[in-house]
Structures are given as structure tokens and as C-alpha cells.
Design goal:
Elements lengths: L2 E2 L7 E2 L6 E10 L5 E10 L15 E2 L10 H22 L1
Antiparallel strand pairs: 1-2, 2-5, 3-4
């Protein structure tokens, strides 16, 4: 499987046509080199249980190139920054 635009805010991939589960990792690094990581899993099926005419292999994208601004990635980056800040504050008190 290939991730298109893997190092951008709008990465995407085409899901396989067979049932599988894939793990994805999002790593965010700030200008000072501090980083945080989060992972998620995406499961796909082979389409045989849909009951419909099917539509291909499916896919996934972070944000829509044709729609309004999708704040999801921005919120994830902000959350990652907050986590890194809190870790730094906690570690400085120890």
C-alpha cells in the first residue's frame, strides 16, 4: 500500500480490496525538534458483506480538497503541542 502525499497535511491512500487492518502513525515535530506520536487502525473488508453493488476498494483521506477547511489535522497538531508542553512542565518539576 502506498500513502500519497505522506509528508503533507492531506495524506491519502487507496484501501486494499481484501479484508485487512492497517495501523497508521501520525508523528508531529515542532521547530525545536520536540515530537509526539499517535496511532490509529483502519479496517477494511472485501466488500462481499455490503449487500450493494459495491464501489471499489474505498479509500481514506485527511481533509477534503474540494470542501471547506477541515480543522482535524490542526486540532491534532494543537493537541500534540499541548501534550508536549505539559510533559515539559511536569518533567521540569521533578
Amino acid at each position: 500500500m502506498t500513502i500519497n502525499n505522506a509528508n503533507t497535511a492531506k495524506a491519502s491512500f487507496t484501501a486494499p480490496t481484501t479484508a485487512s487492518t492497517r495501523a497508521f502513525e501520525l508523528r508531529v515535530t515542532d521547530a525545536n525538534g520536540l515530537s509526539t506520536v499517535d496511532t490509529t487502525q483502519v479496517s477494511t473488508d472485501d466488500g462481499s458483506s455490503s449487500g450493494g453493488s459495491g464501489g471499489g476498494g474505498g479509500g481514506c483521506t485527511m481533509g477534503s480538497g474540494n470542501g471547506p477547511f477541515d480543522p482535524t489535522l490542526l486540532l491534532l497538531v494543537a493537541l500534540a503541542g499541548l501534550i508536549m508542553f505539559l510533559k515539559k512542565v511536569i518533567n521540569s518539576r521533578v
